[in-house]
Automatic annotation (TrEMBL):
Keywords: Cell membrane, Membrane, Transmembrane, Transmembrane helix. The keyword Repeat does not apply. It is a multi-pass membrane protein. This is FUSC family protein. Residues 47-171 form the Integral membrane bound transporter domain. It is found in: Cell membrane. The lineage of its organism: Bacteria, Bacillati, Actinomycetota, Actinomycetes, Micrococcales. The chain crosses the membrane at residues 25-50, 62-78, 85-104, 110-128, 157-177. It comes from the Bacteria. The keyword Transmembrane helix applies. Belongs to the YccS/YhfK family.
């Protein structure tokens, strides 16, 4: 009986854990930006379809365009929604004007309709009207073919209903949980730092392994670092756009100016990390350039890159990582001292690889110094290397 009670208790505890996991998953999923945006689009379309038949005049003959207007106004940020809405209305106006010119100056036929659509496509190709620029030739075509003899009434109804839907979509987007993408920035920057740190650690491990190193993935991963940087810049730019005109940004503030500065520093770091990677790959395999690295210098280089990787891993934007930075600088200084001692006995060409890596590390620390150390210490400690 005791065994049965224990089994029942364990089963109950397992059920509770599964329930908590399910609730947590549902909570995260229900508040994900895509789900929220889809829900808001559905609500906006429903409201637009409900209100559209009550518009006066010829507009009530074309209620199905209001839901379309609600859809085209639904974008991931408020500013992009407003921008796209204005571009859409501008494109519709241009298409209607093209169709009107055909009706006034001639009459709809194969030649004039094709001409209006062609001119509309050329205007759309300029990119002035954003993602929905295709509405320009489509609108001209619809007014001339669908509108036909009632082209003026169709144009008014089309434009009025689209405008109604856009206004409803913008209102729903503004009033109901307006999208704000500030939290993702911190995660993206942390991922960028971790990616750079992991890459440097792998290069450092390769220097400490047997020569040539068995692990060679680091030598071909430079472009991946660039792609990560581009993704992070896109995330920061998206977050910047999401806070414009967003009332939620007042309560969930984030210093995006500092994030942009951190991103610029990490992009600078990426450039020098790629450079030292290329130089070390040349020393190992002679590609893309054939270089020489003296074996006795590899331990010092490995140690320096490891401390640099640790600096990036331990970097906390809300804390001054002075100890990690000081350790990286000390390791670099030891490397520079060793290079100075060997310059009198070794040819300059044999020290070229190590000197280049040392200079890259120096520039990396120079890029990170203003972002990690307090302003007064960053200025005071920025001493030239030579």
């Amino acid at each position: 009986m005791i065994r049965n009670r224990k089994s029942a208790r364990r089963a109950a505890e397992a059920s509770v854990r599964r329930a908590r996991t399910t609730v947590s998953w549902l909570g995260v999923t229900a508040t994900s930006p895509l789900i929220v945006q889809a829900f808001k689009a559905a609500v906006a379309v429903g409201i637009a379809w409900t209100i559209a038949p009550f518009l006066p005049g010829v507009a009530d003959d074309y209620p199905y365009y209001a839901p379309l207007g609600a859809l085209v106004s639904m974008y991931p940020t408020l500013m992009s929604s407003v921008r796209n809405a204005l571009q859409t209305l501008g494109g519709l106006t241009v298409g209607i004007l093209l169709a009107g010119m055909v009706i006034i100056l001639s009459e709809p036929n194969v030649f004039t309709i094709s001409l209006a659509v062609g001119v509309g496509a050329v205007v759309a190709a300029t990119g002035w009207f954003g993602a929905n620029r295709e509405y320009i030739p489509v609108t001209a075509l619809f007014v001339l073919i669908v509108g036909g003899p009632n082209a003026d009434g169709y144009s008014i109804g089309y434009l009025v209903q689209i405008t109604l839907g856009i206004l409803i979509g913008l209102s729903v987007n503004l009033l109901f949980y307006p999208p704000l993408a500030l939290e993702a920035v911190g995660h993206q920057l942390a991922h960028f730092r971790e990616t750079l740190a992991d890459h440097l650690s792998e290069v450092a491990d390769a220097l400490a392994d047997s020569w040539p190193p068995e692990r060679d993935g680091w030598a071909s991963r430079s472009q991946d670092l660039v792609e990560v940087g581009r993704a992070v810049r896109a995330a920061v730019s998206h977050a910047d756009d999401s806070r414009k005109g967003n009332p939620r940004a007042r309560t969930k503030g984030r210093n995006l100016r500092s994030d942009y500065d951190d991103l610029a520093a990490l992009e600078n770091v990426t450039f020098h990390v790629r450079d030292l990677t290329e130089v070390l790959a040349g020393a190992v395999w002679g590609l893309p350039i054939q270089l020489e690295l003296r074996p006795e210098l590899r331990p010092a280089l490995s140690r320096t890159l490891h401390t640099l990787a640790e600096l990036l891993k331990d970097w906390d934007p809300d804390d001054d990582e002075q100890a990690a930075f000081a350790e990286a600088e000390a390791s670099l200084q030891l490397l520079m001292t060793e290079l100075d001692e060997r310059r009198s006995t070794a040819p300059a060409t044999s020290l070229g690889v190590a000197s280049t890596v040392a200079m890259d590390v120096t520039r990396i620390l120079a890029a990170l110094r203003p972002r990690i150390l307090p302003a007064d210490e960053a200025t005071r400690d920025a001493t030239p290397v030579g």
